[in-house]
Write a structure and sequence with these properties.
- The protein is α+β, with helices and mostly antiparallel strands and about 450 residues long.
- Helix content is about 50%, strand content about 15%.
- It contains 17 helices and twelve strands.
- The chain has helices spanning about 5-25, 45-55, 85-90, 110-125, 140-155, 160-165, 170-175, 180-200, 205-210, 215-230, 230-250, 250-260, 280-300, 330-345, 385-395, 400-410, 425-450; strands spanning about 30, 35-40, 100-110, 130-135, 135, 305, 315-320, 330, 360-365, 370-380, 415-420, 425.
- It has a three-stranded antiparallel beta sheet, with helices on one face. The protein has a three-stranded antiparallel beta sheet with strand order 7-11-8, with no helix packed on it. Strands 1-5 form a two-stranded antiparallel ribbon.
- The radius of gyration is 32 Å and the shape is elongated.
- The mean pLDDT is about 80.
Length: about 450
């Protein structure tokens, strides 16, 4: 059997869409800071006022600039050498954004709900720009809603395996990009595709598909929804939807392969005579309406509004990329080194260029005639020294930045990074809500219209 050239394009598009869906996947959940979230409030509100609001919500152990102190001092001298004071200045960067417009407060993760109440209060009552930057949350539950619709449509589709294969990139798109809007977009497209297959391979099928208002509205909303998320999601949607549409052109070949028939069947009833909203077909539209209604309920329950007006806000966050030394914020290793320099400064030979991370301090004793050198105390900057510092850190107040840095571990690099655009800004929330509402109620309107004008028939 010859393999038509158009099938190569369809299979290539399917393969590319699957490839890019997994390459460009968005991680469903990712905690930014271990055990902590970040509240940012514009500096028009004083730090003490924010701390009072946090105290009213029983948010204890908040790390802020005003409650910082020196957790370590030398037992010999109180003087801090000038070249060792840079850490104390640079640690202040943790308490402001890059443009110094916001104060930052680090709160324990279990207090997140209380902090959101403060954000809501500041944003609605005082019109203050503020927000929470704690974790990236992308609800995987919305993917399972898409998956259920995919399974239902596959079961009720006349060409089950064809639908199963052609819609695979579409349903996986809502797994790769787990946003409510993307899931809604996938469900709308699967519904329009399912309806199109009801009249496909019939006479004048494309003319009916191109003019059917329900299919066109579903396609428009599905593309619009993906475009409003991001350009990346839009491109993935176009690629996934395009691969599914291209599969329609392989319908005849696909049918001949899997039916193993020597005959080509021609359907007598033209596409214009098929009512896509007949009693038999309307049940499938109910599936779409029910699924998008579930997404609407989940969206209203789980999504929060971020009242920050600054979309280019850059906050201290762990970086996955290489960071230059001038853009790097101090981490726990910088603190270890600072403690070493402070505690060992009295014993360092300032006239020597020897290794400052290994110090020998001579001990003496008196004999009968003079003083003699007996042995050396050896101090080394190594893991044992760091462990001793960690033990002391466990005893300090947990509102110190160093306590917070120790919680994060040794292998992180911190720099100013774009803040997470989740939860939604007010505008994003409203646009998303409107699109989901349209996806729920447009099919209902179409069904009611068909009933009213008497075209609801078997």
């Amino acid at each position: 059997m010859k393999f038509p050239k158009k099938n190569i394009i369809s299979i290539l598009l399917l393969s590319l869409s699957l490839l890019f869906i997994f390459i460009l996947q968005t991680i469903p959940t990712n905690q930014i800071w271990k055990a902590y979230g970040v509240l940012y409030v514009e500096k028009s509100v004083s730090e003490n006022e924010v701390l009072d609001l946090l105290a009213d919500e029983n948010c204890d152990d908040v790390i802020s600039l005003s409650n910082q102190y020196l957790p370590f001092v030398s037992n010999v001298i109180s003087y801090i050498p000038e070249d060792n004071s840079s850490y104390l200045e640079r640690k202040k960067m943790y308490f402001t954004d890059r443009d110094s417009k916001y104060n930052l407060f680090y709160f324990p993760s279990e207090k997140e709900k209380a902090v959101y109440r403060i954000v809501s209060k500041l944003g609605s009552e005082k019109k203050v720009s503020c927000g929470v930057n704690s974790r990236i949350r992308f609800p995987l539950l919305c993917f399972f809603v898409s998956l259920i619709v995919y399974i239902i449509f596959t079961v009720f589709c006349d060409k089950k395996f064809f639908f199963l294969v052609s819609q695979l990139p579409v349903v996986l798109l809502s797994f790769s990009q787990p946003f409510y809007i993307v899931s809604c977009s996938s469900i709308l497209f699967m519904t329009s595709y399912f309806l199109a297959m009801k009249i496909y391979n019939r006479k004048k099928n494309w003319n009916i598909i191109k003019k059917n208002p329900l299919i066109l509205v579903f396609l428009f909303l599905s593309l619009l929804a993906s475009l409003l998320i991001s350009f990346k999601v839009f491109l993935l949607s176009v690629l996934s939807f395009g691969s599914a549409v291209s599969f329609l052109f392989t319908y005849d070949w696909f049918e001949s392969v899997f039916t193993h028939s020597n005959f080509t069947y021609v359907k007598i009833i033209p596409a214009s005579r098929i009512n896509l909203l007949s009693r038999k077909n309307i049940k499938n539209v109910y599936v779409q309406t029910a699924a998008t209604f579930v997404l609407l309920v989940l969206f209203l329950i789980t999504q929060k509004i971020n009242s920050s007006k600054n979309e280019k806000l850059k906050l201290p966050m762990p970086s996955l990329q290489a960071v230059s030394s001038e853009n790097k914020l101090p981490d726990i290793d910088d603190f270890y080194e600072w403690v070493w320099n402070i505690t060992m400064y009295p014993y360092m030979n300032l006239n020597s260029n020897n290794n400052k991370y290994e110090i020998y301090y001579p001990r003496y004793k008196m004999n009968e005639n003079n003083t003699i050198e007996t042995y050396y105390d050896r101090y080394v900057y190594d893991s044992s020294f760091k462990n001793e510092v960690d033990k002391k850190l466990d005893l300090v107040d947990n509102t110190s930045l160093e306590y917070f840095l120790k919680k994060q571990g040794n292998n992180i690099t911190v720099s100013y990074t774009d803040s997470i655009k989740s939860p939604f800004t007010t505008r994003q929330y409203i646009v998303s809500l409107i699109l989901i509402l349209l996806s729920v109620f447009i099919p209902v309107v179409f069904i009611l219209c068909y009933k009213v004008i008497g075209k609801f028939r078997k």
